[in-house]
Each structure stands twice: as structure tokens, then as C-alpha cells.
């Protein structure tokens, strides 16, 4: 069936109530019962949650063939937890597992042999990169992977699309009862926002930490009342790869010029008012935008009500200087963000609070601005952030579709050409975020506004913003690169791209080049 | 066609060997680019750089940014082909390095004319700029600037000059004071434009600004740049300030008033002004207009 972004979704994936994508607000007002976990009560006061080893916790949790386990990615590239757990599961010979992760990357490479021998047969994730991206693209995972946004993952857990049997939650600190936090240990992550739903909705919850602290470990991101077992290990991760030092602000003139243009679009959009809210990513131009925003705030004597998202040092600096009143944090990217998390008005929010479309109003709905990246953008403003132009999985929707759908003004910033590949093109390799939710595209060659936003077009025409149509940007790109030949794919579907509301927005097939 | 007088605050050198650099340097909005075939290009890449130059000039729309080509030295065996490629591609001008005499300019002009004829270009459409890089070049600045009708300007190149002067480069630039002054006087006397040397410490934004303020006040028309990040700063310093634009407007309006009312004495912002100021005011407004920061009708 052809969905509303023109993608053909095979009928075999449209069963059991799964529908094709039909517009960004198609499921507004949707009514459903939340999925409750099966709880084993700790009635006796003598109950001891501490277990000596990960293997012991896996056995105690009753993990069996065919079940679903979950992980979060706050330990980022320094994560030891996923590989430690998967090695034990592998040795125990448990098969046919589905891994529900908030993101997967180079730190999780032990999943590769697990996929190859059938230990893991299903994956759902908000990010898929490096070796895991390659092995899934090659079609080695038995079932197609499901790519979900952060909000979509929170939704899928809460509405029961995903039933987590055992959640493994790496935590910087925990007390013996499972009150766990991203602060105070050897490997701090700042927040544990993506694990909130896992703890509340999984049947069994295992906290894995390298730092046991006295009871109560408050403020706790993960509440002990939701935790079955606590395991102490030597180390949950490599701190140098978890929260890196300050992400260096770009000095690249091209990126700075794009960042200036983004800030200018925000300023003239009509939404740049005292108390405004915004989210930026950690990429070069997105990060640099904060510098120019500060100049506009100073000029107009206004402040930002709240900034949200993956939090970085530039955001923390603006917060400490009083330009931002409140920070809402679902991921701490650097040491400054980790240190600031849960201090003063820098609050941790769960993935559901952040972006779940099926709760009673996530924070993304209240965003004025979001600044996002893109691997590819088509002339309908559809964006791909998951699949490389060679067809291989190498990206993450993260909160992309969620924030784009929620924000008053969603701005994509990307160079027009990357290594001879056009970013703006006739068709994206696959759709992650529908063009319906994208308002402005800022490139190094000019700015395109989605024609449905005539208000922005009118406002920008009064300025020196270098406006171009999206077709003009595509033509400029093609002037250099030529029109790219379509990537050839096999029939085998290796991944489904689920929109945040659970509908299917695209499928990803195995590239022929990987045969 | 050659436009001798236009806004040329920034001229950025681009290594023509590097496709990624020359493909779209117009996105940085310089006034001029200089495709370099000389020092930046490795000896064994001279041919490929020249081919890339030709293709860049022919194929890419530089969106109004003026395209210059720095050719190899007159006494090299590369210059003939360099000039042929630049003229065939339609470059607006040729920058001649290490110029010391008027005869060299004339020799280069002859080569350009031959190339224009060979490739069916209008004779005279390709401008010339001479880089002065030695004491002799500075001494001959006026003769060089007036050696040929193609001459658009002269530019100081401080590296070799400082070495041959036995001087040391200083932050304040005192060692260049004589050269800068002498070439500026020559340029103004000859009616051509004057451009200052590059500032190599690309991370020192404050030092760069200081130097820009110095050369702007001296009377230079623009600066050679080596990093895209220097372009915006150069324009910022060279652009007239809001205050300067307002004052220039008042001067121009006062001139009109005095003409209309037959009053001989000019008063601007409560002060008497010399009629000689009018030319400066006009130049300020023209520069502001060309820079896109003045939309008035006084010039």
C-alpha cells in the first residue's frame, strides 16, 4: 500500500492493526489502554536485590528463548553494559531474543555475532550505526529491524507494541534497592531519561552499576520500587567515551555562516519572543547557532524560557549566564551537561515526557524552534537521517520526527553537497521525517521554506535571508554532482521505519552492493 | 567586461589544486577570488591545477564574485599556458606576481592580448593587477601602475619584501610602513586601486582587525585574504559605520541645499565643512551601497 509520503509498504507488514503512515497528526485523540508490567512483589522486608553477577541476574530474571530485552544508550560510545550482558546471554545459549534499545552503535559490537548465530533475531532501536548497521543492512537479522524515534520508542513501550521482558539498565550509581542515578559514580551519564519507560513497563528490571551508594540514592532517575535486581560490576563504561569534554565549537566558516542563517531565520520567524523555547542538536552548525542566538537575545533584551534536548556545554553556559531560564534534559552530551544535570532548574525529563505522541502532551508539542540535521532532503521536504546514500543503515532518528512534528518552526541545517553527494535531491533513500513537519531548510547555498509556511516566507522576504526554492537548491546541487543514479536494492526488507505514532512510513531493503 | 572601479574589500586566495575549495568559494561572499596557480600549487600539480582553473571558470557560476588568477612568474616556463587558460576561461583579471618593472607588465599585457585574440575574447577585457614583492617593485610602483591600460591595481606582498629588506615582521607592521605608504601614493597618483598584503595568523582575530583598521585609515581599497573566516571581518571593518553613512548623507544633502539656496558656506551637523569633503562623502555612500548597507538615492 502506498502511504501518504508515496512509499510502498508491503502488505505483509500491515497486519495486526499496523497501518501505513497517513499524516503527522493522523492519530490525534487516539484512545488506548496502557500496557502494565507483570510485577513480582517484594513483601518480606528481608528481600535482597543484590546479585553477585550479571549471569546470576539473567538467570534470576527468568530470561528465556523468544523474549525481549532492553538497553539504553546514555553510556554512548563508552558503554560496557550491552556487551557484558550479551556475552553472558550468549554463553547461556538463550536464543531468538529481541533487543529493544534506545540506540545502538560502535560500543555494542558484540550484538554482531549474536545476530549472526540467532541469539538475537529482532531489534528495535532509535539509532543504528557502524558494524550493527552493516550487519542488519546485509539482511543477517532474522526479522526486519524496527527503527523508532525516541518518542516512538516511549510510545511503543507504553501502548504495548513492545513488551519488555527484562530491562538491563546501566546506572552510574545505585543503592542496594535499585534507586539509580546518572550522577555520583565513576562513569557519570548525567541523566537516565531513556530508561525511565523501561523501568516502569518491563516485567523484570536489572540495574547494573559500578558504584553502590548508601540508601537512599536520591534524587533517583530510576526508582527502586521498579527494580528487581541490582548487580555491581567493576566498570559500566569508559568515562572518556561517555561524556566527552567540551564539544569544540566549529571554526569552519561555512558551518558558522549556516548557523548565522539559522539564527536569523529564528529571529525573523515571528516566534522569537521573550520566554521562547528551542532545541538544537550537537552537530557543528546546530551547536554554533547558540552563539548567534545569544547575540539576538542580547540585542532584544529577551531570554529563553527553556531549552531542551541533548544538552551540551553551550546550552549550559547560556543557562548559567541567565539567557536560558530552564533546561529540560533527556541526554547529557558532555561533561558540562553531566555536571549541571539535576542542579537548579536543569531538570531531567523522561523520553515520554520529551517526545511520546501518545501521552497527554509531550514537551515537543510546546517547542517554538527545533534545529535538526539531515543526510538527505527531497523536494517534498521529506528528510532521511537513517540511511546513507549507499543504502546502508548509519544514522538515528533520535528525536528528529518528534521535535519536527511538535515545534512551531522546524529548521533543517545541512551542507548542500557532501563528498559529491547531493543532500537536496528528487527523492530521499528512505523517509525518516515527513516533509509535512519540516518548515525551513538552511544550506550553505541558500534557504528554502516549505511553501505551506507562507507566514515564514512572507517574513523572510523582508530580510536579506538568501531565499531559494527547494527545487532551486536541488538544481544547484545537481549542477555539481549530477543526478545520482538510484541505489539498487534486493527485495529483502531489512528494516521498517516506524513513524512516531506507530504507522509505517518506509521500509529499508538490502542494498545489492552488499550481496 | 573590465570594471576597473568596483568594490574590492576582500580578495581571497584559493589553491586551484583543490577542487573542494574552488568549486564554490562564492558561498563566503568575498568581493573577489584569486585562483592561485603559483605558490600554493605543488610543482608536479601545475598542469592539473591549470585544467581545474579552466573548468572552474567555464563551468561554475560564481554569482558576481570577481575571478582573478595568480599566474606563475613572468620568467617561468608556466606563464604562457597559465595566461591562455585564464583568458580562455574568461577570468576577469590576471594577478602578476613579483613585479618589479613596467616592462614586465607590458610583457604580460602582450601575452594576454595574444590570448584574447586566440580565444575570441574582446581585446582589453582582461584586467591586470601587479603584486609588488621587492624593494625594486615598490620603488617602481608608479611606473608599474601606469604601464598599461589593463592595470586595475597594485598589491603589496609582504613576505619576500620583508626578507629582502632585512626586516622582521612585527605585529604593529612598522616594517611595512614605508612600502605601504609609497605604493598607496603611487596607486592614487596612477588612478588605480591599492590592496594590502595577507595576514597569516588566521587565529588572531583581534590582530587582524587592528591591521585592517590601519590599512583602511591609510586609504587601501582592500585586503588579500587566505582564510574564508577573514572575509566577513574584512567587510565589517571596511564597511562604513552607520555614523559614517549618516554623516556622509548630511554632507551630500548640505551640498544640495547650498546649491538650491545659493549659500556658499557648508554647515553639516553644526560644523562648517570644506567642499573637499564632498568627494569623501560620495565615496563612503558608494561603498556602503555596493556593500548592500545603504539603499538611499544620494549616490
From TrEMBL, chain A:
It catalyses: citrate = oxaloacetate + acetate; citrate + acetyl-CoA = (3S)-citryl-CoA + acetate. Pfam families: CitF. It is found in: Cytoplasm. Its EC number is 2.8.3.10, 4.1.3.6. Keywords: Cytoplasm, Lyase, Transferase. Its main location: cytoplasm. One of its GO terms (molecular function) is citrate CoA-transferase activity. The keyword Lyase applies. InterPro entries: Citrate_lyase_asu, NagB/RpiA_transferase-like. GO terms for biological process: acetyl-CoA metabolic process. It comes from the Bacteria. SUPFAM superfamilies: NagB/RpiA/CoA transferase-like (SSF100950). GO terms for cellular component: ATP-independent citrate lyase complex; cytoplasm. This is Citrate lyase alpha chain. The lineage of its organism: Bacteria, Bacillati, Bacillota, Bacilli, Lactobacillales.
